[in-house]
Specification:
Layout (H helix, E strand, L loop, with lengths): L7 H10 L11 H11 L1 E3 L11 H6 L14 H16 L3 E4 L5 E4 L4 H8 L6 H4 L2 H13 L1 E3 H8 L4 H13 L3 E8 L2 E7 H4 L1 H4 L5 H16 L1 E2 L3 H6 L3 H13 L3 E5 L2 E4 L9
Antiparallel strand pairs: 1-3, 2-3, 4-6, 5-6, 7-9, 8-9
Helix pairs in contact: 5-12, 7-8, 7-9, 12-14
Length: about 270
């Protein structure tokens, strides 16, 4: 399956779904939240070199969006960063560093499915979380909200790199999220994920349902997925991504075109059988 190129019909579908069109580009926090809800989940600051929907690409409103080297002076990068901060403050969608430490937005309807796959149940925190992560979580459950430096001091983790690894671990485990950012001096304010999204994080669903619904959300926004694309976009393992896509075929929602290649059944291309 080497050198496969997406059909132009699929690219046009993605242009509309992922807001890669100038007339549909994201310009304020309200359309940003609508975009995240429509695609289900997306990256914050990835460009056209990575697969999947991205807030930065939606702000640019074009297929070939590339992050410049100096993002501080780039108006599109700056707007994306500002929108990220506003979305975080409003708390309408989930935002954190998830699988592979990628900054990701998740629509509330998909939070339970991501949580099943990556979250750590409270009963398993003692065995699955690192000592540093448990120390941070203990402090945050007592204080509820703390700035980054205060949280590091209160958890008594002297080594900065160890603290940052533990913070990524807790975000990936759906334990903590940034709720605010201040710039003088720069710091995130951290809180418990369950405080903002209690209903979603307590919704019960199976692993099989979670794989299927995450695959469904991606295929519905992408129209077609190439080999390895779902895994790279979500951080799922290749076997788990395959299980999710196969479940869509069983649901008559998708058509398998070849190894790892699936098309939304409602979308026809010039190469369709």
């Amino acid at each position: 399956m080497r050198d496969l190129v997406l059909p132009e019909e699929v690219e046009v579908y993605r242009d509309r779904s992922w807001r890669r069109e100038p007339e549909r580009r994201v310009e304020d926090v309200y359309t940003a939240e609508q975009f995240i809800e429509s695609v289900g989940f997306c990256a914050a600051l990835t460009d056209s070199r990575r697969p999947g929907p991205s807030l930065f690409i939606a702000v640019c409103g074009r297929r070939d969006a590339h992050l410049p080297r100096n993002v501080q002076k780039d108006p599109e990068s700056s707007l994306t960063w500002t929108l990220k901060d506003e979305i975080m403050r409003r708390g309408k969608v989930y935002y954190a560093k998830l699988a592979r430490a990628r900054a990701t937005f998740i629509a509330p309807r998909l939070i339970p499915y991501f949580h099943v796959l990556w979250g750590v149940p409270q009963r398993k925190e003692g065995t699955l979380l690192s000592p540093a992560a448990k120390a941070i979580l203990k402090v945050l459950r007592k204080e509820w909200e703390l700035a980054t430096r205060d949280l590091q001091q209160a958890s008594q983790i002297a080594e900065r790199s160890q603290f940052l690894r533990a913070m990524d671990e807790l975000q990936r485990s759906f334990k903590i999220i940034p709720s605010e950012v201040v710039y003088k001096p720069f710091s995130y304010i951290w809180t418990l994920a369950e405080g903002r999204f209690p209903e979603e994080l307590n919704t019960q669903c199976s692993r099989e349902d979670s794989l299927r619904e995450i695959a469904r959300a991606y295929l519905e926004s992408a129209a077609m997925t190439m080999r390895g694309e779902l895994a790279r976009t979500t951080g799922l393992s290749a076997p788990d991504a395959g299980l999710g896509n196969w479940a869509l075929v069983d649901d008559d929602f998708a058509v398998r075109l070849g190894p790892g290649v699936y098309r939304l059944k409602a979308v026809k291309t010039s190469n369709s059988a």
